[in-house]
């Protein structure tokens, strides 16, 4: 594990974007695992700069999302497919068809989850998976108690996660109760992982995930076992290390 501690989100975004560019350089048809939430936003902004400068090549890039809410209307602004097109694909000039997201609108979400796991496999697996971390230590939507062997599946969101994500919705009741999330085993199969955290609210989860016991009580702690984990933190997120 390599931990980078940067003075602010902009610097963090710039260095993490360079990391991603270098990691995918020699890969012929790279597969990037992408995350939603505020943490990766500075990284996507810096990647967009590198794409327009021509250093980061996106023509053959395929992106696979970590997770998606179940049951939001197609045009809902917080549907993760829409969030990723807005924050990631459009600024980088990536075709919508190269962005793969679990189908949270499927009448059979469990079947959609299984199909998504297969799609990752058929794409050759994920070369580099970007990750944020929830305050309760979740990665993707793998809430505390998630099995380390879990694959992409339907999960119920913790109350604390629905409260944390209510800021993106008109009110708390609008936050979906379920999502389709890559499992912890799915995430651990990525050939490399890059965890991003900013802000003091993440400091305790970061400390526990990186230096505490590896336990299903704190799903992100499983990343300690990943052979190629890089962590990018700002000073506040690193303050409890
Ligand atoms: C959400 C997402 C996670 C994300 C986390 C942290 O619930 N499903 O993938 O990492 O919350 O979000 P943020 O970066 O906005 O703090």
Quickly list its features.
single chain, about 240 residues, alpha/beta, Rossmann fold, seven-stranded parallel β-sheet, three-stranded antiparallel β-sheet, 7 helices, 10 strands, globular, binds 2-amino-2-deoxy-6-O-phosphono-alpha-D-glucopyranose
Gross morphology: globular
Reported for the largest beta sheet, the result is: 7 strands, parallel
Which hetero compounds are present in the coordinates? 2-amino-2-deoxy-6-O-phosphono-alpha-D-glucopyranose
Structural class category = alpha/beta
Query: How much helix, percentage-wise, in residues?
Result: 25-40%
Rg from alpha-carbon coordinates:
16 Å
Identify low-pLDDT runs: none
Distance between the termini: 14 Å
Number of helices in the DSSP assignment: 7
Order of helices and strands: EHEHEEHEHEEHEHEHE
Mean of pLDDT:
97
The assigned CATH architecture is: 3-Layer(aba) Sandwich
The strands making up the biggest β-sheet line up spatially as 1-10-9-6-2-3-5
Number of discrete domains: 1
Number of strands: 10
Provide the CATH topology: Rossmann fold
Fraction of residues in β-strands: 15-25%
CATH class: Alpha Beta
């Amino acid at each position: 594990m390599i931990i980078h501690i940067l003075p602010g989100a902009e610097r963090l975004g710039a260095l993490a974007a360079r990391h991603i560019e270098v990691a995918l350089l020699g890969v012929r048809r790279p597969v990037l695992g992408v995350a939603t939430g505020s943490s990766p936003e500075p990284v996507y902004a810096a990647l967009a700069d590198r794409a327009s400068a021509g250093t980061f090549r996106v023509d053959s890039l395929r992106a696979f999302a970590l997770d998606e809410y179940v049951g939001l209307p197609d045009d809902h602004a917080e549907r993760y497919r829409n969030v990723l097109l807005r924050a990631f694909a459009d600024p980088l000039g990536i075709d919508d068809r190269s962005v793969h997201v679990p189908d949270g609108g499927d009448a059979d979400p469990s079947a959609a989850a299984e199909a998504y796991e297969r799609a990752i496999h058929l794409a050759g697996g994920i070369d580099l998976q970007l990750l944020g971390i929830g305050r309760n230590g979740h990665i993707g939507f793998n809430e505390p108690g998630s099995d380390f062997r879990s694959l992409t599946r339907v999960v119920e969101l913790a109350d604390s996660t629905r409260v944390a994500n209510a800021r993106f919705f008109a009110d708390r009741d609008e936050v979906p109760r379920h999502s389709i999330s890559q499992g912890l085993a799915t995430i651990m199969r990525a050939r490399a992982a890059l965890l991003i955290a900013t802000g003091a609210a993440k400091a305790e989860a970061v400390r526990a995930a990186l230096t505490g016991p590896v336990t299903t009580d704190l799903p992100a702690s499983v990343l300690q076992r990943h052979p190629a984990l890089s962590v990018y933190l700002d000073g506040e997120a690193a303050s409890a290390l």
